[in-house]
C-alpha cells in the first residue's frame, strides 16, 4: 500500500515536470467533454430539431452516441500521449526496476499522467460548456432553454467516461513498458 | 542461373520456374512492397500506438459515418417521396398552404386545396388529393386521382404490410370497397379521386405533363406561369406565398446540373448535416486528425536518429514516402474499422432510419475525405524533419 502511495506521489511529481506535454490531450478531451455536456444540457432543443425530421427518439439517441464517441476520440489522444511518455522514460523505468522497485507502483506512477490529463480535460470542457450554456440561456439563443439536470448529468458522464477510458486505453502500454527486462530498458537508445 | 526446363513446345523451351522466380523477386523488391514492409516493421515496433491511433481515427470515422448514414437515408426518403408525387410529370402545382413531408406516414401530403388551374390545350393535368388517412391499422398517406380506375386501389408494399392486404383482396376506404393491387415499395394508398375526397378532404395538388411538341424544353414552368398566373420556380426550397394562389414547381427546367429530385432530397439531408449533429461529427473528425498528426509526430521524435542516418546518405524526399505509406496504412485500417463500427452502431441505435444502402452511401462519402487526411497527416511530420540538418538529427539523443 505504501509502495502504491509512493508510486502515485512519484507519478504526480513527474506529471508536473511534463505539464507541457499534457496540453494537447487536455485540449482534445476538453473539446469532447464540451460537446457532450452541451448536447445533454440542450437535449430538449435537439429533440425539437429532431422532431421536425421525424424519428425524434432515434435521432436523439444518435446525437448522444455521437457526442460520447467524440469524447472518446479526445480521450484516445490522452493514451497516444501516454505511449510517447513511456518511450521517453524507458531508461528511467529501467533504473527503477533495476533498483528493485516492483511493477505495481511503477504502473501506478505512469497512470497518474493520463488520469490527470483526462480529468483536467473533462473539467475544463465542462466549465466551458456550462459557461456557453449560461450565455446561450441568458441571450435566448437556445430557444428551448438549457436544462440544469442535463448539464449535471453531462458533467458527470464526461468526467467518469474520460477517466475510465483514459485508464483503460493507457494500461496496456504502461504495463508492457513496466514489464520490460531492466537490461533492455537501460540499454535502449531513447 | 540454370533454368529448370518444364516443357518443350514448338517455339522452344519454356523456362517457367525461372520466370516465376524472377517475377516473385521483382515483386518482393518492388518499391511499393518494400515501403509496405518497412511501414509494417515500424508498426510492429510500437504496436500500442498504432492500435490507439487506428482506434481513435476509427471512432472519428464512426461518428461521421453515422451522421452521413442518417442524412443519406433522409435524402433517399426525400427523393423517393417526390418521385412518387411527380410520377413522371414535369410540373407540380401546389396549394398556397404548401405541402410537407409527413414523417409519420412517410409521404408528402398537401396542406391546402389544389389551386384553381385552367389547363391549356394539349397538357395532361392530374389533380391528386393527398392527405393522411387514419385506417384501422394505422395512419397512412392516401392519394386520390383519376389515374386510378374506379373500384380499385393501388397500395404500396409498405402500406400493404401495415394494412395486411395482398393483391386481389378488398380494401374498405371510407364507404367504398376497392379491389387491391399491391404496387411499389412505398407507404401510399392510391385510390380514385372521389373516394379520397370523402375520406381526407379536398387538400391536394396538380401534376402536369407537357404536350409532345413541347417535350424537352426547360422553360415549361414559366410558360405555365404565364398561362395560369401562378408563380413558378425550379427550387424546391421556395415555399408558396401564404396569401397567394399557389406555386408551380418546375421539375424539369432550370439550368443547374442537379435534377429537381436531387435538390429536393438535398433539402432533406441538409437538415441533418447542418444541424447540431453535422457539426459535432465534423469536430470528431478534426480530433481524429489531431490524433493522427500527434502519433506521427511522436514517431518522428523517437526516430530522429534513424532519419538522421537516412538524410546523411542523401535520402530526403524519400522520407515522405515512408510516412505516406505508414499514414495510408493507419487511415485505411481506421476506415475499415470505422465503417464497420458505424454499421453496427446504426443498426443498434437507429434501426428504422438506417438502411444498408444509406450506410454504403455514407461509407462512400467518408472515403472521399480520407486521402486528403492521410496525405496531410504524412506531410506535417516530414516537414518537421526536412527543416533540420542531418547533423542535428544525428546528434540528438531522441
Automatic annotation (TrEMBL), chain A:
**Keywords carried by this UniProt record:** Cell membrane, Membrane, Transmembrane, Transmembrane helix
What is the first-listed, main subcellular location in coarse terms? Answer: membrane
Q: Can you give the residue ranges of the ABC3 transporter permease C-terminal domain? A: 65-182
Q: Which InterPro entries match?
A: ABC3_permease_C, Macrolide_Exporter_MacB
Source organism superkingdom? Bacteria
Q: How does it sit in the membrane?
A: Multi-pass membrane protein
- Compartment(s) of residence: Cell membrane
Could you name the Gene Ontology cellular component terms for this entry? plasma membrane
Q: Name one GO molecular function term.
A: transmembrane transporter activity
Name the residues that span the membrane: 21-43, 63-87, 107-131, 151-175
Q: Which family does it belong to?
A: Belongs to the ABC-4 integral membrane protein family.
| Name of the molecule in the record | FtsX-like permease family protein
Q: Which organism is it from?
A: Blastococcus haudaquaticus
Automatic annotation (TrEMBL), chain B:
Q: Which GO terms describe its cellular component?
A: plasma membrane
Keywords of the record: Cell membrane, Lipoprotein, Membrane, Transmembrane, Transmembrane helix
Query: Any transmembrane segments, and where?
Result: 50-70, 276-300, 320-350, 356-380
Q: Indicate whether Transmembrane helix appears among the record's keywords.
A: yes
Pfam families the record matches: FtsX
- Keyword Ubl conjugation applies: no
- Specify the protein name: ABC-type transport system, involved in lipoprotein release, permease component
Main subcellular localization, coarse class? membrane
User: Which species is the source of this protein?
Assistant: Blastococcus haudaquaticus
Report the locations given in the UniProt record.
Cell membrane
What positions does the domain ABC3 transporter permease C-terminal occupy?
A: 279-368
> Topology relative to the membrane, per the entry?
Multi-pass membrane protein
Amino acid at each position: 500500500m505504501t509502495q502504491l502511495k509512493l508510486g502515485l506521489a512519484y507519478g504526480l511529481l513527474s506529471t508536473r515536470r511534463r505539464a507541457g506535454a499534457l496540453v494537447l490531450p487536455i485540449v482534445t478531451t476538453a473539446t469532447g467533454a464540451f460537446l457532450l455536456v452541451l448536447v445533454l444540457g440542450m437535449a430538449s432543443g435537439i429533440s425539437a430539431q429532431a422532431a421536425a425530421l421525424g424519428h425524434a427518439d432515434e435521432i436523439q439517441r444518435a446525437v448522444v452516441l455521437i457526442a460520447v464517441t467524440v469524447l472518446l476520440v479526445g480521450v484516445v489522444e490522452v493514451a497516444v500521449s501516454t505511449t510517447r511518455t513511456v518511450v521517453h522514460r524507458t531508461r528511467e523505468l529501467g533504473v527503477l526496476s533495476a533498483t528493485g522497485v516492483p511493477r505495481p507502483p511503477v504502473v501506478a506512477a505512469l497512470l497518474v499522467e493520463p488520469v490527470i490529463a483526462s480529468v483536467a480535460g473533462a473539467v475544463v470542457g465542462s466549465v466551458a460548456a456550462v459557461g456557453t450554456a449560461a450565455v446561450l440561456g441568458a441571450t435566448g439563443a437556445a430557444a428551448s432553454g438549457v436544462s440544469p439536470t442535463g448539464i449535471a448529468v453531462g458533467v458527470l458522464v464526461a468526467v467518469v467516461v474520460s477517466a475510465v477510458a483514459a485508464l483503460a486505453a493507457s494500461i496496456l502500454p504502461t504495463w508492457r513498458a513496466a514489464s520490460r527486462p531492466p537490461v533492455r530498458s537501460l540499454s535502449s537508445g531513447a | 542461373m540454370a533454368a529448370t526446363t518444364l516443357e518443350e513446345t514448338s517455339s522452344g523451351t519454356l523456362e517457367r520456374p525461372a520466370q516465376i522466380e524472377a517475377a516473385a523477386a521483382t515483386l518482393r523488391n518492388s518499391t511499393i512492397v518494400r515501403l509496405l514492409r518497412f511501414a509494417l516493421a515500424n508498426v510492429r515496433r510500437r504496436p500500442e500506438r498504432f492500435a490507439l491511433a487506428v482506434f481513435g481515427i476509427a471512432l472519428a470515422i464512426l461518428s461521421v459515418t453515422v451522421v452521413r448514414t442518417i442524412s443519406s437515408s433522409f435524402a433517399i426518403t426525400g427523393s423517393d417521396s417526390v418521385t412518387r408525387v411527380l410520377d413522371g410529370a414535369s410540373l407540380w402545382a401546389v396549394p398556397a398552404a404548401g405541402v410537407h413531408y409527413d414523417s409519420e406516414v412517410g409521404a408528402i401530403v398537401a396542406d391546402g386545396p389544389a389551386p384553381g388551374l385552367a389547363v391549356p390545350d394539349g397538357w395532361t393535368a392530374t389533380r391528386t388529393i393527398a392527405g393522411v388517412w387514419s385506417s384501422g391499422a394505422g395512419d397512412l398517406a392516401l392519394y386520390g386521382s383519376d389515374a386510378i380506375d374506379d373500384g380499385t386501389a393501388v397500395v404500396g408494399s409498405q402500406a400493404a404490410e401495415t394494412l395486411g392486404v395482398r393483391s386481389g383482396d378488398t380494401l374498405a376506404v371510407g364507404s367504398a370497397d376497392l379491389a387491391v393491387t399491391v404496387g411499389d415499395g412505398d407507404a401510399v394508398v392510391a385510390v380514385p379521386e372521389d373516394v379520397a375526397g370523402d375520406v381526407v378532404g379536398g387538400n391536394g395538388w396538380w401534376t402536369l405533363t407537357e404536350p409532345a411538341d413541347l417535350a424537352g424544353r426547360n422553360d415549361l414552368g414559366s410558360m405555365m406561369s404565364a398561362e395560369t398566373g401562378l408563380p413558378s420556380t425550379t427550387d424546391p426550397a421556395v415555399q408558396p406565398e401564404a396569401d397567394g394562389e399557389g406555386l408551380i414547381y418546375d421539375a424539369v427546367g432550370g439550368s443547374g446540373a442537379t435534377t429537381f429530385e436531387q435538390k429536393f432530397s438535398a433539402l432533406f439531408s441538409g437538415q441533418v448535416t447542418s444541424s447540431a449533429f453535422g457539426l459535432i461529427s465534423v469536430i470528431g473528425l478534426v480530433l481524429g486528425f489531431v490524433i493522427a498528426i500527434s502519433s506521427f509526430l511522436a514517431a518522428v521524435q523517437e526516430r530522429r536518429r534513424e532519419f538522421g542516418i537516412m538524410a546523411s546518405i542523401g535520402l530526403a524526399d524519400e522520407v515522405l514516402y515512408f510516412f505516406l505509406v505508414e499514414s495510408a496504412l493507419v487511415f485505411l485500417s481506421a476506415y475499415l474499422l470505422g465503417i464497420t463500427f458505424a454499421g453496427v452502431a446504426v443498426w443498434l441505435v437507429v434501426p428504422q432510419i438506417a438502411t444498408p444502402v444509406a450506410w454504403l452511401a455514407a461509407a462512400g462519402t467518408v472515403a472521399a475525405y480520407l486521402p486528403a487526411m492521410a496525405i496531410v497527416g504524412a506531410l506535417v511530420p516530414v516537414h518537421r524533419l526536412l527543416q533540420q540538418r542531418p547533423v542535428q538529427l544525428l546528434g540528438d539523443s531522441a
